[in-house]
Request: fold
Amino acid sequence: MLTSKELERYNRQIRIIGEGGQERLKNVRVFIAGAGGLGAPISIYLAVAGVGKIRIVDHDTVELSNLNRQILHWNRDIGKRKTESAEEKLKEINSDIEVECISKTIYEENIIELVGDSDLIIDAMDNFPTRYILNRTALAKNIPLFYGAIYGFEGQVTVIIPGKTACLSCIFPEASLSPSNTFPVIGVTPGIIGVLQATEVIKYILGIGELLKNKLLLWDGLNLSLDEIEVVRNPECEDCSDYGRT
Reply:
């Protein structure tokens, strides 16, 4: 049940999704891998939407060079763990939700425990080795993965549903495996891509609209264009070939 405070806080969106929809948001547990450029807007907008439990995992500390895009972190946070900074801000943004931030590096050996009983996984990472771990975990737990990536003025988004869509390895079978590369980025790009990811998450929870299933959305900020390309499952995919089609 929603409290009187929650009814007031979410009044504008309850007019669209109803109290039942707001209760669905309240009862969902989301896992966000990363508290940086993508993780910041994703977590902020899921928090203000009233997603009931947000778990964020990140191992980094805040650096000055993060501040052009990682909007959860401020000057005063330089040197802090990103998880500490993120938890502090998100609890101030919405005291009616539960926020759990874990300062760990994601490995194949610990990811199942880190994801725990979460209902979905959100990829806010900056490297494909970790993304592939998230992909395999989503498949193993039979929960959706919301992928987003950025570079410069450009970004990508898709939604992966085990057994129903192409998985990340189908779409990117030979992506760069170097986890140490840094890349240029304009601060607004992760904001746009993160908000698109958060939108897809909310639609999925509520069961409304058309998700980016078997579609890779491409954002080009310089030309202000959005394109979609169709993606298909690879029947020989090492990660998802065992999952049935519907």
Remarks:
- The mean pLDDT is 95.
- The domain at 4-230 is CATH 3.40.50.720 (Rossmann fold).
